[in-house]
């Protein structure tokens, strides 16, 4: 099962549509999927904020921090982290250099136009179905790990500092992923290196999707990203420092994430749901856009090595809790999403064994 080498129709950068008076029909969502009034659901609900400084404190503090993370994973599948060890200055530079990239003239970006074959590069859509509904966002997708897949020649050559900053940013955030992999292993009752081993250790994958959501003349009719769960292990998201847009599903409601300064937003993906036999679950999220300002975000996805079979960890399977999912490699799993585009949690649900 391969992906085709070309898109089924010409790809239009959303940035080129931002100044029109109305949005093309392809971007108009059915009424039930529209964002509604985002200010109205300014519910008091907030995803938890965890101070990771506690992990390097005494035993009691460390345990309390782990409990907070475990609680956040069970209740939300989403949390913000502060004191995470990545320098705020590096976070700021990464965001700024990528913002500059998206502000370059169209022909500079077009050089890196991607194809559905590998997705690496500059793009504006996911699924390959002709005539599919489209989201109001452009992106740049690249691989940071494993080293064997990383190819900096495929990263933007401009601005001149982009590759160096992206490399430094990736290294720091991947370190943070290592810490979270241990914490998640321990809180699931597994050996502390269990998840890292299941992901292939040094061969684990890390890729980045830099999202650019241009301002939109009719933000109430569309979404920057439709509802989806992330297919991989987990995601470390650097949000825009000023413009909000991320919403997380909680039951039947959508909760707008109010990001705090210098924090990352962490969310669990489908592979952690499978490995934990659904003790932890991936959570649907989406992005709304606005008429006043563009929004940028940098998502770093931490994933299992592509050719390893991923199934429920033996320790999470008991007589009362049989294995819920059939093992599958991440390479195979990810192909479904690349072909079909985003559709809520339908992909992980299709793995259900019974
Ligand atoms: C993603 C994503 C959220 C955001 O890239 O998978 O969910 O706020 N991004 O841009
Ligand atoms: Ni996502």
Automatic annotation (TrEMBL):
Residues of the Fe2OG dioxygenase domain: 203-304
PROSITE patterns: FE2OG_OXY
GO biological process, one term: defense response
Pfam families recorded: 2OG-FeII_Oxy (PF03171), DIOX_N (PF14226)
Reactions the enzyme catalyzes: jasmonate + 2-oxoglutarate + O2 = (1R,2R)-12-hydroxyjasmonate + succinate + CO2
Co-factor(s): Fe(2+); L-ascorbate
GO molecular function: dioxygenase activity; jasmonic acid hydrolase; metal ion binding
Domain of life: Eukaryota
Listed InterPro entries: DIOX_N (IPR026992), IPNS-like_FE2OG_OXY (IPR044861), IPNS-like_sf (IPR027443), Oxoglu/Fe-dep_dioxygenase_dom (IPR005123), Plant_2OG-oxidoreductases (IPR050295)
Keywords: Dioxygenase, Iron, Jasmonic acid signaling pathway, Metal-binding, Oxidoreductase, Plant defense
Family membership noted in the UniProt record: Belongs to the iron/ascorbate-dependent oxidoreductase family.
Protein name: Probable 2-oxoglutarate-dependent dioxygenase At5g05600
Gene that produces this protein: LOC103709552
